[in-house]
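testing teh design pipeline on a random one, pls ignore if ur not involved
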């Protein structure tokens, strides 16, 4: 018998109304005090309560029945038993662009301070365990988000300025791919990462709107000061709200940042944010879910590391079929940082060699990804 996971009160109430057993049921991150009367007469043998609030009577019954109980910690600013992705509104709740000091009170900044002071600095086993459990929950929620979606990632430098042509190019690529039905993802921070989600946000708008939004963002070209960087992005979101596509859906995108680099704030243009403590889990997972391809815009050591990590996944088919690797910037990737010739040699004789492409043309990047999509949809599993 499999394990049933329940992470909403509606789901639990439906489960109880059907009279289903609570054996091998995992209840995650819920306040169950209002359901004490019903839970106190149920068999809670082998029920697992992850970070859920229990009435004293329910707690006593759960203990007597041999349930497994992970009580929520009281001294951390985040939930280790989180069951949903973050939103920009949650991470930056309380931020007032007219009062920059309010930035320090946002959830994102409070968690970062906690992580620096305790978990990242060593901390206790409970600090480490809280972070690991949190990241497990984020991965679970991320998998739900991407289920059935065609995911494409864009990698590139966090230092890419909003007034750079490269920023505009990344935004145009992301806009084009979003309008074609792909879910865009990135490391979720500033620079090329922000450009990815900005482009997705502007899907189904004309280029005039995109250029006007870029002018606003260009007033604060880098992510320092963070408060002003954030304020201009929020202004763009207000002036240019998302536009529904032909299918009636609003464009979305997925940012995957980390508190290891918490000095780089996550972009508010991502509609869903899978923020991790463990950067290694975040980087490997980000490349793994991009099964419809990765676009590499100019970047430094971090981007180059991701290039070889993606190449290894393709080379060894770590996650099934290999997927496209598209390099934006011929001179950059062949002369300034001559990574492409090395990878082309590595791929010789392998089927992913045909999936590698290098160009300066934005439309060509989009076309290369789009042409690949039907191959995956029609592929027969080996």
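output:
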């Amino acid at each position: 018998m499999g394990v049933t996971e329940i992470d909403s009160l509606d789901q639990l109430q439906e489960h109880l109304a059907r009279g289903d057993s609570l054996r091998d049921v995992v209840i995650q991150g819920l306040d169950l005090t209002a359901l004490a009367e019903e839970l106190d007469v149920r068999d809670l043998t082998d029920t697992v309560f992850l970070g859920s609030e229990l009435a004293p009577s329910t707690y006593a019954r759960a203990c007597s029945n041999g349930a497994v109980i992970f009580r929520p910690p009281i001294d951390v600013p985040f939930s280790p038993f989180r069951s949903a992705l973050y939103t920009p509104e949650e991470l930056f709740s309380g931020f007032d662009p007219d009062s920059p000091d309010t930035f320090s009170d946002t959830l994102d900044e409070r968690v970062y301070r906690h992580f620096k002071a305790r978990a990242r600095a060593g901390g206790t086993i409970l600090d480490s365990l809280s972070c690991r459990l949190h990241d497990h929950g984020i991965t679970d929620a991320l998998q739900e988000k991407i289920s059935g979606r065609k995911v494409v990632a864009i990698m590139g430098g966090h230092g890419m300025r909003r007034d750079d042509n490269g920023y505009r190019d990344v935004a145009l690529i992301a806009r084009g791919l979003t309008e074609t039905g792909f879910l865009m993802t990135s490391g979720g921070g500033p620079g090329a990462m922000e450009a990815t989600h900005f482009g997705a946000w502007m899907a189904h708008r004309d280029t005039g709107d995109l250029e006007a939004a870029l002018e606003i963002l260009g007033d604060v070209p880098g992510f320092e000061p963070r408060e002003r960087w954030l304020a201009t992005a929020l202004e763009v979101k207000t002036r240019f709200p998302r536009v529904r596509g032909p299918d009636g859906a609003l464009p979305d995108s997925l940012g995957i940042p980390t508190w290891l680099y918490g000095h780089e704030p996550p972009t508010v243009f991502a509609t869903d944010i899978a923020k991790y403590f463990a950067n290694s889990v975040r980087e490997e997972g980000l490349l793994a879910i991009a099964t419809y391809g990765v676009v590499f815009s100019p970047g430094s050591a971090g981007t180059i590391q991701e290039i070889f990590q993606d190449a290894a996944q393709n080379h060894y088919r770590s996650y099934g079929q290999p997927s496209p690797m598209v390099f934006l910037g011929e001179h950059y990737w062949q002369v300034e940082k001559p990574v492409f010739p090395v990878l082309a040699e590595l791929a010789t004789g392998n089927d992913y060699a045909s999936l590698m492409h290098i160009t300066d043309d934005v439309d060509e990047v989009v076309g290369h990804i789009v042409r690949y999509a039907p191959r995956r949809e029609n592929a027969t599993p080996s």
